[in-house]
Amino acid sequence: MNTATISFRVKPEIKRRADALFARLGMSTSTAMNILLMQTLDHRGFAAPVALPANDETPNAATLAAIDDLDNERNLTRYDSVDALLKDVL
């Protein structure tokens, strides 16, 4: 895939904060800028924001492990009925 370089000036503190935010969202600043440009073109203007929750909560290690287990079908309990599920959890 061919790419072009875009260069622009930004205050160092803005870059540091943006890099940190995009890292928390799981992407590089370059990827974030590509998303911004593509979405802007698709919407012919700015699209809805991609943002962290307002309360700035991020998943803790236990939640991330549970998500990984679910994604990889590990440590799961299967039930034959809702009644069996309710009996186990209540």
Could you characterize what this model shows?
By secondary structure, the chain is mostly helical. It has two domains: 1-51; 58-90, no CATH class. It is 52% helix and 0% strand. It has four helices and no strands. 0% of the residues are buried.
Short description:
The protein is an all-alpha fold. It has helices spanning 12-24, 29-43, 61-71, 82-89.
Give me the secondary-structure topology.
Elements: H1 12-24, H2 29-43, H3 61-71, H4 82-89
Labels describing this entry:
mainly alpha, 90 residues, 2 domains, 4 helices
Counted beta strands:
0
Helix-strand sequence: HHHH
List the total number of helices: 4
Q: Please outline the major beta sheet.
A: none
Indicate the radius of gyration in whole angstroms: 20 Å
In percent, how helical is the residue content?
Answer: 40-55%
